[in-house]
Specification:
This protein has seven helices and eight strands, in the order βββαβαβαβααβαβα. By secondary structure, it is an alpha/beta fold. α3 links the parallel β5 and β6. Pfam families: PhoPQ_related.
Length: 275
């Protein structure tokens, strides 16, 4: 079942099983974030949502699943500049736009977490026991950021996404003959990115400063992805320390920049394990 709730002008779509309305179980709320140039209605989002909800309907767990989707900034109902979603060949501000949208989306996830219960359950009828984020491509980048910046996010499933922004964008620029400097890489923007970069975090540490400790992370990547290659994420993912949490990663050998049935199956099974 789909319900749309408007929060501060933002359309928030929630998807649940038919049994959800009469249930009193705690809720696992999972965001599913779409890719660049797509929206919350894109097939790669809706297919994953359908698979998740259908699986939850037949699963007798301790929690109910609620899936959440919305349009990224400058996408779907929020589109203001089509060029801003394109790559270097059409958009000289590709580095600016990709970073601002993915970090903005992570902030939107936190914003929705702040308010969603109050809008959906104004009398305290239900509560969200656990929050998670799954995302595809651009949404996968945002998933990494949301997991690193909001302690409420306990589950992260980045799909064909990358945690190392410059590790992804610098080779992309070089492949297009673009130098890593102004105007495509302004110094002020580079300073901001480096100060916020996940690759600069002590993610291999077991100390309290590591934001991934205790979190459950499933990374799904394509072995032949030409857009977000596994090589851009590999060092970060392999070195990631989650402590008492869980870390798994699957690189589908022959997959390109796509969400394969194997990836959908892995994501669904991962969620069922924590329901």
């Amino acid at each position: 079942m789909k319900q749309t709730t408007v929060i501060a002008g933002l359309d928030i779509h929630t998807y649940t099983t038919e049994a959800f309305a009469s249930s009193t179980k705690p809720i696992l709320a999972l965001f599913v974030l779409h890719g660049r140039t797509g929206d919350s209605g894109s097939a790669h989002v809706q297919d994953l949502i359908t698979a998740l909800v259908d699986a939850a309907a037949g699963h007798a767990g301790q929690k109910d699943l609620m899936v959440i989707a919305f349009d990224h900034r400058n996408h779907g109902t929020r589109l203001r500049d089509e060029v801003g979603n394109l790559d270097f060949k059409a958009n000289p501000k590709h580095v600016h736009d990709m970073y601002s949208i993915q970090t903005g989306t992570a902030k939107d996830v936190s914003f929705v977490m702040d308010f969603l219960e109050a809008y959906l359950f104004p009398s305290g009828e239900r509560s969200v026991a656990e929050w998670g984020v799954a995302g595809v491509s651009l949404g996968g980048h945002s998933t990494w950021i949301a997991a690193a910046t909001d302690p409420r996010v306990k589950i992260a499933i980045p799909i064909i996404g990358c945690p190392d922004y410059l590790g992804l964008m610098v080779p992309r620029a070089e492949a297009d003959g673009i130098s890593v400097g102004p105007p495509h890489f302004p110094e002020g923007l580079l300073s901001l990115i480096r100060s916020e970069a996940l690759s600069a975090l002590p993610y291999t540490s077991k100390g309290d400063e590591n934001p991934f400790l205790g979190k459950n992370v499933l990374v799904l990547s394509g072995g032949r992805d030409p857009v977000v290659p596994w090589s851009a994420s590999q060092a970060f993912v392999e070195g990631l320390e989650v402590g008492t949490g869980n870390k798994e990663y699957i690189v589908v050998p022959n997959a390109g920049h796509e969400v394969t049935p194997e990836m959908v199956k892995a994501a669904v099974e991962y969620i069922l394990r924590v329901l």
